[in-house]
Amino acid sequence: MTASLRHSVYAAHSAQSRSARPTVHVRLTKQTRFAGSVCDTLLGVEGRLAEPWPAELDVPAILGGGGTRPPRPFTIGPAADRGAVLAYRMLRRRVFVEDQALFADSDLDFRDDDPRTVVLVARDPAGTVLGGVRLGPADDGPDIGWWRGGRLVVAPGQRGAPGVGPALVRAACAYAEEAGVLRFEADVQARHESLFARLGWRRVRPVRVEGVPHVLMRWPIGRIAAAADTKAPLGPLLRGLAPGGRGFVGDDGAPVPGSDLVACCDAILPSMVERDPDWAGWCAVLVNVNDLAAMGATPSGLLDALAARDASFAARVLAGLYRAAEAYGVPVLGGHTQLGVPAALSVTAIGRAAQPVPGGGGRPGHRIRLTADLGGRWRPGYTGRQWDSTSTRTTADLRAMIGAVGAARPAAAKDVSMAGIAGTLGMLAEAGSCGAVLDMADLPRPPDATVGDWLTCFPGFAMLTADAPGAPALPAGPATGAECGELTQGRGVRLRWPDGELTEAFPGPVTGLGPA
C-alpha cells in the first residue's frame, strides 16, 4: 500500500511555554511504499522506509529536549481512523500490560468507550504510529471543562529518540485548551514526574494507580486570569478619583449626587467599529442599558459620540444604534458626530433609581446567582468571544431582563463585562472586600458554548448577583438563573468542581480599585 505524508502538525500551545519548545525542520520528499497489514504498518511491524530521510518537504516536529540521536521526524494529530486507534491500543497493551505489568490483562476502561475521548497519535512519514495519548472529560456527566489526560505511550523502539513523549504531552495540553478546558490533569508515574514538571505541569498530590505510585499533576491554564487582566490597570489609573462615589466605587454606573439619576458611559473598541459598524452600534446601546440594569435603574435616554471616516460609514453605525434603541424602548436624546477621522464610538446612558443597587453590597456567606440569556448564538466573526442573545429578542423580553435587578433588589449586582463571568465575579467580590467560589457544575451555560469560552466571553445579557441564602431569583423573562457559588472570606476567585476540588482562577483583586 502507499502511505501519504501528513503535512499538518498539532503544535499550537500557550505562550507561557513556547520559548522552551525548539522546532526542528526535517526535509522529506515523496510517498514511500511498504508492505503489511494496516495495523502492522501503523505499528511499524512490517516494512520500513527504503530511503530514510530524503529531502524536499518541510515537516516541523515539536521536540522536548536534547539527545545524542538525530531527531526522527514525526507529526501529531487526532487518530482519525480505526487503524490508528487500534495501533495506539496495541502499543498500550505492549507497554502497560506486557512490559510494565501495570494491568493484569487489559488497560482498556470506560474512557475508551466514551465518544468524547480524543486520541492523539504521533506518526512517522510512513504513517507508523510512534506513540499516543488520550484525553477527554473526567467523568460521564456533562462536559464542564474538567478533562483528564492519560495512557501516554511511546513505542519501545522510539524511547531513546528525543521528542515524541514531550510533544504528545504538549499537543494534549494545546488540544485541551482549544476545547475550552479549564482544569486538565493526569496521573503520572512517579518516575516521570520530573519530565512533566519540566514541561510546566504542577504537582497536586501523590496517588496510586493499580497499586503503583503515581503523582496527580495539573496543567496550569491561565485563560480566566488573562481575561480579568484587562481590568488590572484601573486601580492605578483612577487612584484618588473614587469613580461612582462612596459606596459605588468601581460600579457599573454612577449615582448623580442630590438626585435619583444614574449615569454610565461605555466605548466600543475602534477595531470592532471598523470591522462591524452595525453591530458596534447595537452593542453601544446594549452595554449601557445593561450597566444601568445592574444598578437597578430604568433607562431614560442615550447620548452618542461618533467618529467616522465618512457619512456613509457613520450611517451604518447609527443604523445599528437606532435599531437597538428602538428594540430596548430607550430614546436617543442627542450626541456628537465627527467625520473625516478614524472610527470611534461611545455612548452615555442616563437612568433613574431611587435606591441604586451597589456592586459592593455582597458579604461573606451570600450566595452568588448568575442570570443569563442562553438563547441566540455566537456572533459571526466573534466565535468564543461575543454571544449574541439580544438582537432577536422582543422589546418585552429585553425590558424584562433589564428590569430584573430593580425588581428583585439583591444585595449586590454586576453586569458581566468583557472580563467574563469569572472576572466580573472577582470585581463584585473585590468591591465587597470578599473572595468568591464559583460552582462549575451549577453554572447556566448555552449548549453550544464551551465552559472556557462562556466564562471569558461577553455574553450579551448576564447578571451576577449576591444575596442572602434563600433570596428570590431575578424575574428576568427569557433569561435562565441559578445559584452557582458564594462569597467567602479572603480574596480572589476559586472554581469548585464536582469532586470538591478547588482550583484558583486568580488569587487577588481584579481592578485594584478596592472596596466600594
UniProtKB/TrEMBL annotation:
GO terms for MF: acyltransferase activity, transferring groups other than amino-acyl groups; thiamine-phosphate kinase activity
PROSITE patterns named among the record's database cross-references: GNAT
Designated name of the protein: AIR synthase
UniProt domain N-acetyltransferase: residue ranges: 74-222
Annotated Gene3D superfamilies: 3.40.630.30, PurM-like C-terminal domain, PurM-like, N-terminal domain
NCBIfam families named among the record's database cross-references: MSMEG_0567_Cter, MSMEG_0567_GNAT
BP GO annotations: thiamine biosynthetic process
Listed InterPro entries: Acyl_CoA_acyltransferase, GNAT_dom, MSMEG_0567/sll0787_C, MSMEG_0567_GNAT, PurM-like_C_dom, PurM-like_C_sf, PurM-like_N, PurM-like_N_sf
Superkingdom of origin: Bacteria
